[in-house]
Amino acid sequence: SLSFNGFQGHILTIETSCESRWIAETFGSLIGLNKVWVDALKNNSGWYWDSGPQQNCIFSTSSNCFTSWDSNQPSTQSNVAINLNTQYKFNTLWRTNGPSINNRVIVEYSVISSQSCCENAISTEVGGCERQRIWRNPRNLNFYELIVFNSTGLDRSNALSIANKRVWSTTIGQLVSFKHPCDWLWLTQMIDLQSEIDLIDYSSFSLWIGAQKIFSSWKWQDNCDVTMFDWQLNEPSCFDLDSIIIKQNKWETQSSNSLTNGMIVEYVVNSISCTTINSGSHDCGTIVMLNNVNWEKLICNSVNEHIYSRRTVPNMYWYQSIYLTEFLMIHGQYYGHLVTPTSNCENSIIATNYAIDRGWLGGSLVISSNYTYGWRMGPEDGCAFSFGLKPNNKRLNNTFTCFTYWSTIQPDYGGSNEFNMEFYQTYWNDVYLSRTNYPLVEFSKKWNVKNTTCCGSQDFDDCPIGYTTICPSSEITKYNITVTDSFILASFT
Predict the structure, then answer these.
(1) C-alpha span between 326 and 93 (Å, rounded)
(2) How far apart are the first and last CA of the chain?
(3) CA 245 to CA 210: how far, in whole Å?
(4) Pairing mode, strands 394-395 and 418-424
(5) Sequence-separated (6 or more) residues with CB below 8 Å from residue 455
(6) Longest alpha-carbon distance in the chain
(7) Which of 68, 299, 317, 438 shows a CA-CA span of 20 to 30 A to 208?
(8) What angle (nearest 5°) sits at the alpha carbon of residue 73, between those of residues 92 and 82?
(9) CB within 8 Å of 338: residues ≥ 6 apart
(10) Cα dihedral 241, 278, 163, 486 in deg (nearest 10)
C-alpha cells in the first residue's frame, strides 16, 4: 500500500546481479547479521516473484534467470530471505525461511510497471553494470576497467564492440594499450589487488587487450606499433594467431575467434602520440591511489617497518573503509589495509598519532555464538584474538597468546548488533555497523603472504629504546611519497 512519487511499493525482489550487489552494499551496514525478506514464493512449477515488475515470473527453472542461493539451498520451506552481511566482502545469499520468522523488510518502488520474465537478468558482461572495478592510473591519468564476461565468454570482435560502446566520464572506451612498461606493471598490481578484494583470482582469467597482428606487425587499436611485450614462456606462439590476451600477468597469443573470460577497457583521458618506449628496466615508483580524499602525514614504525596514515574526514562506514584502504599500495611491496595492531608498541604508535577520537580497526566479530573477534585483513587476516564479552572476555583458548587492548567495559556486543571494531581514545571498542568513522590505513609488506604465527611473539612489548615514528628522508626519497589534498600521488619516471 506504500507509494513514492507515484510509484507503487512492494517487498524487495532481486532480478539481476547488479541489483543484488547494489542492495548488499547499500543496506548491508544497516542490516548487519539480520535477514531481509524478498517477495519470492513457491508453487508446483517452482519459485516465483509475488510482486514487482516481474510478478508471477518463475525464476528457479531457467538458466536465463538470476538467482543467488546459498549452499544447500533452496530447502523445503516456502519463503525466501537474504543475508546481506555474511562476511566483510559483501555478498547476497538467498535462504528459505518459514513464514512465521520475523525478518527485516526493504520496500522497493519500481519505475517500470512490468517486464518480461527474467529480462536482462544475465547480462553479457557479468559485473559490468556495477562499475566496481574501475581504476585510475596515476601516471597517465587514464581510467581502466576490468570486465568479466558470463560463462560463455566472448570473442575479440564482440569484446571490441562492447568496449567501444562503453563511456566513463564522457570518454569512450577501447581495449587497453600499453605505451609505457610502467602502465603494464601498474595494471598487474591492480588486478592482484582486485583479486584480494573480490576473493577471485582474476590473474588466472584470460583477458582481451588491444593488441592485434596486422599483416606481420603487432598494432594497438589506435594503429600504434606495439613496442613492449611481456610474453609467457614459449610465447609468442609459432602458430598464426592474430591477437593477444593476458593471463597470469603475462601475454599470450590467441586467435581472435577464441572465447575469453573478460577484457580490460581503457578510457583515454590524455591521448599521446605513438611512442618508442620498449620493454626493459624502468623505475616505476611508488604509491597507487584511486580515491580523491584527504590523508594525514605518514608515520613509519621502525620496529615492524610498517607505515600508517589516516583519512581526515570521519564519514565512512567500515566496509567502505575496507575498499578504500585496500586500493593503496607503496612501491609494489607495501599493501594497504585497515590497521591491525598486534603489539602494545604498534597500538600506542597508532593511537598516539591518529586515534584522537575514533578510527576504524581491521577487526570484527567473526563467531557470534561465543563472541569471537578476529582480524579480517592484513597479514593477520583470519586470526582470532579474543572471545567472550566483558567483564569475562579472555584471549583465545583462555591463553595470553594474542595482544588485545579492549576498554574495561568492552566488548559488549551492544544489544546484539555491534560487530565492527574501532579505536576509541586509544582503547578498542565494538560498534554498530551504521557508524561512520576515520579510516586508519596500515601499509604492510606483502600482506597477501599471511602471518602464520597469527599473533606474533612479542605481542606485549613496549616500543624499544631508540625506535622512531619519523619516516626517514631516505625512505621518502626512495618511494617518492607525496601526500596532497587530492590523492596520494605515484611518481613515475
Answers:
(1) 24
(2) 62
(3) 9
(4) unpaired
(5) 342, 380, 383, 385, 401, 402, 403
(6) 75
(7) 68
(8) 30
(9) 321, 322, 325, 360, 361, 362, 377, 378, 439, 440, 441, 442
(10) 160
pLDDT tens digits along 284-343: 544 444 333 456 767 878 777 788 888 776 677 887 787 777 767 665 567 788 999 888
CA gap 373, 389 in Å, rounded: 10
Helices (H), 209-343: 318-325
Question: Residue 171 corresponds to which amino acid?
Answer: T
Question: What are 42's three cell numbers?
Answer: 513457491
Q: What are residue 307's DSSP bridge partners?
A: 300, 443
Query: Cα(387)–Cα(29) distance, rounded to whole angstroms?
Result: 23
> Left (φ > 0), alpha (ψ -120 to 50) or beta: where does 197 sit?
alpha
- With H, G, I as helix, E, B as strand and everything else as coil, classify residue 317: coil
pLDDT average, residue stretch 119-132: 46
Angle at 360 between CA 193 and CA 328, to 5 degrees: 25
Q: Is 150 exposed, middle or buried (0-12, 13-18, 19+ CB in 10 A)?
A: middle
What residues have CB less than 8 Å from 289, skipping those under 6 apart? Answer: 138, 327, 328, 487, 488, 489, 490
Note the helical H segments in 338-381.
344-353
